[in-house]
């Protein structure tokens, strides 16, 4: 009991102080007036020089949103959000659109450096040390600061193989036909309250197109940073993998410590055509609020992938450690015959964090398969729910799913819930579900400590062991980062 | 010279039940002690009290490691100070590769003692040497700690950890149980390599056959939570003949 009690104490001390990305960048911003109206939607669209059809699309979403109500079914609890008290557009003031990295405000470059994301083309993201001589893997980065993308690296090199990687605002101007063909086809503008809001006011995000038969030569990644106060971040990401192509994409995010809650309502749409594959990884580290639940990001995100083509594959891997509230279900629509969806998740909640996350695997095509591995870890006074749906359409002959949900509890004041829904309309499908909930074993902690590990290190080691299956799915560099992040989010000073 | 381990009139309880009843034991550096005694006499309890397992409470008396009061140290501090317990029932740590575990443990101890960490290549080299001595497959060390290991494999793995960590005081709690005849020789050989003038070893066992390989300097008989008789290595042979019956009645 003593050991667990101490862990609880430690976890209690964690909170605001452990969040090392909580600084604010002092930079002048262009802000749209507070509040939401048709005027604001028009303002955002005009700022981005969007085509007329895009404005219409936004306005339609906005009108639709006015008729909708906020969903209340998730196991999360928060005071009502005043949508008129937010800024919907904030952009660092700069000479219109930097043409190269040299033109980016040095203050911004410093910010990303501080976050461990150097925006130089020769460096990689994570500070992993490698033996001398071994080549560092390169990663192309799109950096989004509040409502705008401030820099995208390796664009030229990617262009050579036909890969388009740019801010979505730029894609709307340079590749309008591609954006128009796919935008809103996975997550319709009317999909849900937050997605509809996003459709009306989204400001920036990344656009990726991989041409047929191309294996993207490097990892692509986007780093989101909320800086401005009272600002919602509504980014939109659209990734299309054309026939027989492959891309691995990573998303990361941080925000300053602020006493007010901040709203983040993103939409991510993925499309894979025949034989294509997208591997999408997220390391979510938004500010979680302090130990009393003050401040923190509301992370209400709609992420969905459409395996449109036969034999295509989408795999979501997420490490969720931040945010005051997480409401997020990265999903796969398995439309193409023999397509495959995967969901690997580590969700850690601590302090007063609330997580309601999981996935949906919608089997429409014949011979479709899916796999779900979810690891939930609750500590402090947090609540952590896995919510999942696996469904098979009448035509989904031979569909198969395997689900494994494990929850680990640290201390006695937190909670974990598993809420699986299964709907099989075709008698030939096979769905398997396994779930476990356990407390971190005091005997195992004692064993580790008898070998010399401190309480924190022992806990981190046990937790890392618990999430190993999922960590292995991350690209190596990010797995190392994620492992560190897991230690930091659970303990005092474990690094 | 201060003894390596000095236990004086130690009384300890678990869940309100007193198990150790005035325990006295002195182990000097360079000595090997064997503790024998019937099931439930508190041999494992002694090892847990010394290593600081949560729930085990000292109510009276003292236990000193090289003069330092163990009751004032946390579990990991005791480990860093050189106390190692080879568990009677080693625990499994799912998902953590044995090699990772060894590195974490060794470097945590070194860091606490203000020593430099061992580099990965050096560590791998050292572990390979030890695995060879203990006739263990390196493949096993890539698997999670003790997960799916057979009883005997777990005991070998405990011995490997002990040899890598080079503790000052080794407590082996029935390390021989679960070992086949060949494994017993291999593991004993490993333990014997640890015998040195700076180190103390306490082996808890039920059987003479282990002591055939690890020859003790002193043999103790423990009954009902304390030592009731102490002798040389011939005492173990005598016990083999007579059993514990007379000690149990003596203690009662
Ligand atoms: N958690 C507990 N609560 C109550 N009694 C306990 C607890 N743990 C151990 N005991 C008791 O303490 C006594 C000593 O146990 P211990 O495991 O130390 O014996 P041992 O000498 O190692 O026996 P063996 O030779 O079988 O390994 C036993 O009677 C046991 O039932
Ligand atoms: Mg025992």
TrEMBL record, chain B:
Fetch the Pfam families from UniProt: ABC_tran
Q: Which domain of life is it from?
A: Bacteria
**Which InterPro entries does this UniProt record tie to the protein?**
AAA+_ATPase, ABC_transporter-like_ATP-bd, FeS-cluster_ATPase_SufC, P-loop_NTPase
- Which molecular function GO terms apply here? ATP binding; ATP hydrolysis activity
Domain ABC transporter, chain residue ranges per copy: 5-249
Q: Which residues cross the membrane?
A: none
Q: Which UniProt keywords apply?
A: ATP-binding, Nucleotide-binding
Looking up NCBIfam families in the UniProt record yields: sufC
Do you know which PANTHER family this protein is assigned to?
Answer: ABC TRANSPORTER I FAMILY MEMBER 6, CHLOROPLASTIC
Q: Which family does it belong to?
A: Belongs to the ABC transporter superfamily. Ycf16 family.
Write down what this protein is called: Fe-S cluster assembly ATPase SufC
What organism is the protein native to? Methylocystis rosea
Task: Report the gene name.
Answer: sufC
């Amino acid at each position: 009991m003593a050991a667990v009690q101490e862990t609880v104490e430690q976890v209690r001390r964690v909170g605001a102080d452990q969040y090392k990305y909580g600084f604010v960048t002092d930079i002048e911003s262009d802000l749209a007036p507070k509040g939401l109206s048709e005027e604001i939607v028009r303002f955002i669209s005009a700022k981005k020089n969007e085509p007329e059809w895009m404005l219409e699309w936004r306005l339609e979403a906005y009108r639709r949103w006015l008729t909708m109500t906020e969903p209340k079914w998730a196991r999360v609890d928060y005071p009502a959000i005043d949508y008129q008290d937010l800024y919907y557009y904030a952009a660092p003031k700069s000479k219109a659109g930097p043409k190269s990295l040299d033109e980016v405000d040095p203050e911004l470059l410093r910010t990303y450096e501080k976050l461990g994301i150097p925006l130089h083309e020769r460096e990689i993201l994570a500070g992993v040390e490698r033996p001398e001589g071994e080549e560092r893997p390169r990663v192309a980065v799109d950096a989004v600061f509040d409502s705008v993308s401030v820099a995208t690296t390796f664009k030229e090199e990617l262009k050579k193989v036909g890969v388009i990687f740019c801010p979505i605002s730029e894609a709307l101007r340079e590749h309008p036909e591609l954006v128009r063909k796919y935008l809103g086809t996975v997550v319709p503008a009317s999909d849900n309250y937050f997605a509809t809001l996003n459709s009306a006011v989204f400001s920036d995000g990344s656009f990726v197109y991989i041409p047929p038969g191309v294996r993207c030569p490097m990892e692509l990644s986007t780093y989101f940073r909320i800086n401005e106060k009272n600002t919602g971040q509504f980014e939109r990401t659209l990734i299309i993998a054309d026939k027989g192509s492959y891309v691995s994409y990573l998303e990361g995010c941080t925000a300053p410590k602020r006493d007010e809650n901040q709203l983040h309502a993103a939409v991510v749409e993925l499309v894979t055509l025949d034989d294509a594959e997208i591997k999408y990884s997220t390391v979510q580290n938004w500010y979680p609020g302090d130990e009393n639940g003050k401040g923190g990001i509301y992370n209400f995100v709609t992420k969905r992938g459409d395996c449109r083509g036969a034999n295509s594959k989408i795999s979501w891997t997420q490490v969720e450690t931040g945010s005051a509230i997480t409401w997020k279900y990265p999903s796969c629509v398995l439309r193409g015959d023999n397509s495959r969806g995967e969901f690997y998740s580590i969700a850690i909640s601590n302090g007063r964090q609330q997580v309601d996350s999981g996935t949906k695997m919608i089997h429409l095509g014949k011979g479709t398969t899916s796999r779900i591995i979810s690891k939930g870890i609750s500590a402090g006074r947090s609540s952590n729910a896995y919510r999942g749906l696996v469904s098979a359409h009448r035509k989904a002959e031979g569909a198969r799913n395997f689900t494994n949900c494990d929850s680990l509890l640290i201390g006695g004041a937190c909670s974990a819930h598993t809420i699986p829904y299964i709907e099989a309309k075709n008698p030939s499908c096979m769905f398997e579900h396994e779930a476990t909930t356990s407390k971190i074993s005091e005997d195992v902690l004692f064993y580790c400590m008898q070998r010399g590990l401190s309480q924190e290190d022992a806990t981190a080691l046990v937790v890392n062991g618990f999430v190993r299956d999922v960590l292995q799915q991350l690209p190596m560099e990010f797995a190392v980062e994620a492992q560190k992040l897991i230690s930091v989010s659970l303990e005092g000073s474990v690094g | 010279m201060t003894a390596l381990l000095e236990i004086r009139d130690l009384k300890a309880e678990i869940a309100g039940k007193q198990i150790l009843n005035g325990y006295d034991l002195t182990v000097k550096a360079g000595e090997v002690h064997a503790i024998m005694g019937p099931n439930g006499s508190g041999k494992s309890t002694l090892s847990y009290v010394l290593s600081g397992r949560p729930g085990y409470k000292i109510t009276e008396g003292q236990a000193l490691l090289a003069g330092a009061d163990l009751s004032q140290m946390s579990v990991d501090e005791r480990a860093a100070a050189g106390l190692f317990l080879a568990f009677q029932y080693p625990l499994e740590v799912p998902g953590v590769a044995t090699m990772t575990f060894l590195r974490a443990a060794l470097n945590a101890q070194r860091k606490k003692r203000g020593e430099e960490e061992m580099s990965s290549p050096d560590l791998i080299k050292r572990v390979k040497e030890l695995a060879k001595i203990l006739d263990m497959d390196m493949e096993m060390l890539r698997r999670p700690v003790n997960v799916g290991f057979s009883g005997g494999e777990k005991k070998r793995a405990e011995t490997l950890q002990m040899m890598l960590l080079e503790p000052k005081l080794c407590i082996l709690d029935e390390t021989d149980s679960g070992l086949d005849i060949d494994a017993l020789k291999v593991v004993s050989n490993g333990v014997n390599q640890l015998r040195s003038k700076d180190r103390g070893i306490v082996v808890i066992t039920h059987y003479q056959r282990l002591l055939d390989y690890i020859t003790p300097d002193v043999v103790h008989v423990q009954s009902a939570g304390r030592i009731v008789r102490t002798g040389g290595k011939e005492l173990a042979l005598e016990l083999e003949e007579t059993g514990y019956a007379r000690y149990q009645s003596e203690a009662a």
